[in-house]
Design brief:
The protein has 381 residues and is mainly α. The protein contains 12 helices and no strands. The two termini are 37 Å apart. InterPro entries: DUF475. It comes from Streptomyces venezuelae (strain ATCC 10712 / CBS 650.69 / DSM 40230 / JCM 4526 / NBRC 13096 / PD 04745). This is Integral membrane protein. Pfam families: DUF475.
Length: 381
């Protein structure tokens, strides 16, 4: 079962790691391995969401999402998008960006270094919004309750996450401007670049989130209409065909999933810039990681168990928050790639371990494996 589901992912992992060694030696091997783990970790909740929605779709639309959808995710978002980011930030053509990355690494590195403040500000704001919207949401299952409970209460204030993100951006820009001024003021204009790029990242998140919400609402409306049609048909003795039940609702599911997948792809791609600026290593690591998202989605659909490790989603979002902070810090200070890559892995491992402990407590108490946190521990932990 595991080999059948993850076979292609295992094969592509081996090819990707070999290619990394041939390209840049064992250091490149380590970076690609970190990016693989990072992408898988950040996308685990994406696979869970995908699986939950795919279960409602018929076989045709499942195949569409797992073929065309994967092509868009792997080649569009993970391979093309990093090149586009570098091209736009450095104001060069995509082909030139690829050519420089392959044939003139020093010049490419210089362009990426010059463009890094805008990349870091854009990515930092996008990732920070993902984290803030998650942490301010009131949810039944809480991992670090001493943090999440009070923040969930604060989250009832409208637009709080946007306000905090803008304050963080303003402080980052002012700090960078002060730093530049102390060095002669030759790069004061970079403060404006940080502000503009950060606002662009914020707008991108709001647009993607708005589209996701729109498709989700349309999906719910279509499901409600088709449910009513099914009930009316049953009362009148008519037969409701599977094609009718899989029509518009399935189409909106597909669109919704593509928007969601794109939004989750952003965090992986942007987070990768905190680990490396080399688009070849980035493409290898994120491409391999994206294949595991597909395999995880298929595995979760076939197994039908999505709630075994309930804290993994929390760990992934805390990793996103950490990456957001690190990206903003790298506007002014250089941070070793090992640190940026390891923090996410540690948080995911911690959340997995917490999930396993939770499951053992529930089993010991005879509570089954349900996802209701209130049945887990009588006293707040």
């Amino acid at each position: 079962m595991v080999l059948k589901t993850f076979g292609w992912s295992f094969a592509i992992t081996a090819l990707g790691l070999v290619a990394a060694v041939l390209y840049g030696g064992w250091e490149a091997f380590g970076i690609v391995a970190i990016l693989c783990v990072l992408e898988i970790s950040l996308s685990f909740d994406n696979a869970v969401v995908n699986a939950g929605i795919l279960q409602k779709m018929n076989a045709f639309w499942q195949k569409i999402f797992l073929t065309i959808g994967v092509l868009i995710a792997v080649f569009g978002m993970r391979l093309v998008f990093p090149v586009v980011i570098v091209a736009i930030s450095a104001k060069i053509g995509p082909i030139e960006a690829v050519d420089l990355a392959l044939n003139d690494a020093d010049r490419y590195q210089e362009l990426v270094t010059d463009a890094h403040p805008s990349i870091a500000a854009f990515g930092g704001m996008f990732l920070l919004m993902i984290f803030l919207d998650f942490i301010f949401e009131d949810r039944d299952i809480q991992w670090l309750r001493w943090i999440e409970r009070p923040l969930a209460k604060l989250g009832k204030v409208d637009m709080l996450s946007v306000c905090i993100a803008l304050i963080v951006l303003l402080v980052s820009a002012m700090t960078f401007a002060t730093h530049a001024h102390q060095h002669g003021g030759t790069h004061v204009d970079k403060a404006q670049t940080v502000l503009i790029s950060g606002i662009a990242g914020l707008i991108t998140y709001l647009v993607v989130g708005g589209l996701s919400g729109y498709f989700e609402n349309k999906l719910e409306e279509e499901e409600e209409r088709e449910h009513e049609a099914e009930e009316a048909a049953k009362r009148s003795g008519k037969k409701v065909t599977a094609v009718q039940l899989a029509g518009k609702a399935a189409f909106f599911m597909f669109l919704y999933l593509e928007v969601l997948d794109a939004s989750f792809s952003f965090d992986g791609v942007i987070g990768a810039f905190a680990v490396t600026n080399d688009i070849v290593l980035m493409a290898l690591g994120l491409g391999v990681g994206a294949m595991y998202v597909r395999s995880l989605t298929v595995y979760l659909v076939r197994q039908g168990t999505l709630d075994d490790y309930v804290y993994l989603e929390h760990g992934a979002h805390y990793a996103i928050g950490a990456l957001a902070v690190l990206l903003l810090v790298t506007i002014q200070y250089e941070i070793p790639e090992v640190i940026t890559g390891s923090i996410g892995v540690i948080l995911i491992a911690w959340s997995f371990w917490s999930s396993v402990r939770r499951n053992k407590r529930i089993a010991a108490a005879g509570g089954g494996s349900g996802s209701d946190e209130k049945t887990e521990v009588p006293s707040g932990v």
